[in-house]
Amino acid sequence: MSIPRNRPRPSCLARFFSGFVQIVINVLISGVAAAVLLWLYPALTPPVIALFESLNTPPSGYWWGGFWLILSFLLGAIVAGGLTTLLALLTRRKTA
Amino acid sequence: MKRTTKYSLILAAAFGLGFALPAFAPPPEITTFLWFEAYTDTWHLPEWTCDVGSTSDGNEQCKIVDENPCLSSGGGGGGGGGGGGDGYEGWPACQEVPDWCWLCTSNGGGGYYVDEPPRDRTSTNPTFSGEITLDANGYVTNVQVYNHGFLQTATLTSLNPTGASFSAQFSNLFDNASNQGYLRMEGAVDATTGGGVWTWGHAGPGDTNSGTWWVTMIRTEGEEDPAEEPLVAEPPEAAPPEEPPVVEPELEAEEMQREPELAAPLSFEEQAALVGAALMGAVVGTAAAQAGTALLRKPLAPALVPSPVDGKLVPPSQAAFEQEKLNQGYRYNPVSDGFDYVPEAEKKVELKSNIIAGQVAQVRAEGAQRRAEIQGKIQASRANYKNSIQQEMARQQQSYQQHMQTAERYDRYSNIAGLVETAADIGVDALAKCTGPAGRTVKLVYERAKDVIQYGNAVYDHGLAGGTARFAGNKAYELARNKALERAPIPKFGKGKNAARYFQVGPNTLAREITPRVVDALGNTAAEKGVEKTVDAIKDAGVEKVNSLMAGK
Questions:
Q1: Which of B265, B279, B263, B275 is nearest to B20 (CA)?
Q2: Is the Cβ–Cβ distance between B68 and B78 less than 8 Å?
Q3: Radius of gyration of chain A from Cα atoms?
Q4: Which residue from B275, B118, B415, B234 is spatially nearest to A31, judged by alpha carbons?
């Protein structure tokens, strides 16, 4: 029995599952972030409306939706990026 | 995360976001138009401008005086700008000249009041009508009074929507007026119904008449199926004419203060859009975090290390992998650049089994190729040999046929020669008997010549020794035969008994003719056998002698 000298790469199935796990993790993280945002939406609405009124912008339409979309995007990015960074730091410490 | 996975997620999130973003789009502009009609319920005309009497049918009628009450008595010309005076007979005099009474100075002969109010208070026709516009939120955005009859240039001067209610005021009611009249409307409307009160007046005398208005028809624009919804023009319960509904604009405005505005709950599409944005943010955040940590780790990445199998510089992970394989019992094979598993028993021998196996396989392959070549040559040689044999057989068959033909021809010649020889023998014998010494000389020469030929034939057929012996045996037998036959009577040609006996077949003739032939046959056979045995014995002895000499014995 002979095996190649080079360290074998993960199989196609293993890579697929690895990517799938990453996707699931991202979906979970984004789901959590979106759930938190939806949970805070009623409480955040009055000050946001006040903000929009101060800017003389109606609390509806694209500006209104864009604001919440950006907020959701930033929340997901911050949560996911923070967890990834934390995991990377823990992994490096473990390796060292 | 793989780059393709990141891109795929970003694209998926972008697509999801693109599909969900319209959820936040503002609702389509829906405009509702409400037609209304206004009817006069109460008159506030001052007495000095009205002639309140009874019509023929007994109904109260407001008569607008034809003459200018502002004129001083005597009509025409006077009173311009002045006050006082008695005015026309039977009519109250003006207490003072109102500022709207511009005709007082320009046309003393009479005329109409300017900014006169609607006259017909008993007609079923509405006093005026118009249109109210609502936006998608139900707010009044415009109030319009249609131009017809005495109304030609009514202009909306103020509109104060407060929630579902509004108040509006018009001016410049007539195109040729002094712009002293006014019209106020107040009420509440929504997308399905509405109504309120109105007041008409002049700057001078104040309110002249008032009434109610209500929505009679609705038309909506901006929906898929805009449809006009005519409403039954049923006026609300008519208030007593003398008691018009009192509208308190200030109080109503306070009651209809806008409620604190709260955002509506998010729809499913909006929630999906937020989840999509969070997903995209998670992907981007993860990618950014991984990129950042990779940048931080790069300076700390260990350098290349020597390989445990051949000393080449390889990454530490590769070196660890190779060391692991060595520990598991594998041996590095530089030929195949891989790891071969070597059992413990074979490790001591240090046998490169794969190399040997490769060489053996190569030798076997070469041997098989050589064997195939030899087999091919053998088959080709066999084919050539077979062909040559077949050709030789054909040639031999052809030669055999030719020899058979030749033998048949020679046989015929031999028979003819035998007859000739017999005839010659008989002739020579006869000549020798008949002609004396000359005939005997001829016979002797003939016999010698015949002996020479026979000897030559014997030598030709049986070789020198065999032919000589055979010829000698034949001659000896022939001499003995001739000696024996000389004793037999000699046939005589010519006349007499001998001649007759010679040609008559009888016992003696048969004996004389058959006996020599029988004797020849027996003698020849015995001589042949004896000679052959002798020759064979001599030849066998010679061959054995030669063989013993060749064998060194």
A1: B275
A2: no
A3: 21
A4: B275
pTM of the model: 0.30
Report CA-CA distances (Å) from B128 to A36, B223, B241.
58, 29, 18
- Residue closest to B10 by CA, chosen among A65, A30, A32, A14: A30
Enumerate the residues of chain B whose CB falls inside 8 A of the CB of residue A24.
none
**Which residues are bridge partners to B145 per DSSP?**
B130
Cβ contact, residue pair A30, B337, below 8 Å: no
- Minimal CA separation from A42 to chain B, in Å: 8
Q: Which of residues 21-80 of A touch B (CB under 8 A)?
A: 22-23, 26-27, 29-31, 33-34, 37-38, 41, 45-46, 48-49, 58-62, 64-66, 68-70, 72-80
Inform me whether the C-beta atom of residue B283 falls under 8 Å from chain A C-beta atoms. Answer: yes
- What distance in Å separates residue A9's CA from the closest CA in chain B? 11
Contact at CB, A2 and B341, closer than 8 angstroms: yes
Residue type, A28: L
How many CB contacts within 8 angstroms connect chain A with chain B?
A: 168
Beta bridge partners of B341: B330
Cα distance between residue A9 and residue B468, in whole Å:
105
A13 to chain B, closest Cα gap in Å: 14
How many alpha carbons lie under 13 Å from residue B243 in its C-beta half-sphere?
A: 4
Per-residue pLDDT of chain B (553 residues; tens, 9 = 90+): 555 556 666 666 666 666 556 666 665 667 888 888 888 777 665 544 444 344 455 444 444 444 444 444 433 333 333 333 333 444 444 444 444 443 333 333 333 344 445 555 455 667 788 888 888 778 888 888 887 666 667 888 888 888 778 899 988 776 555 676 788 999 998 888 889 998 887 666 677 778 889 888 888 876 544 444 455 445 555 444 444 444 444 434 444 444 444 556 777 878 888 888 888 888 888 888 888 887 777 666 667 888 888 888 888 888 888 888 888 888 888 888 888 877 666 665 555 666 777 788 888 888 988 999 999 999 999 999 999 999 999 999 999 999 999 989 988 888 888 888 888 888 888 878 777 788 888 888 888 888 898 899 889 888 888 889 988 888 888 888 878 877 766 555 555 555 444 455 555 655 666 667 776 777 667 766 776 777 777 767 777 777 776 666 5
- For chain A, say whether B339 makes contact (Cβ under 8 Å): yes
HEC assignment per residue over B297-313: HHHHCCCCEECCCCCCE
Nearest to B76 by CA among B103, B98, B52: B103
| Sequence-distant (≥ 6) Cβ neighbours of residue B134 within 8 angstroms | B31, B32, B33, B34, B140, B141, B189, B190, B191
Cα dist. B323→B313, B318, B326, B330 in Å? 14, 9, 5, 10
Residue B440, class by beta-carbon neighbours within 10 Å (0-12 exposed, 13-18 middle, 19+ buried)? middle
Residue B229 belongs to what H/E stretch?
Answer: strand B228-230
C-alpha of B33 from chain center: 57
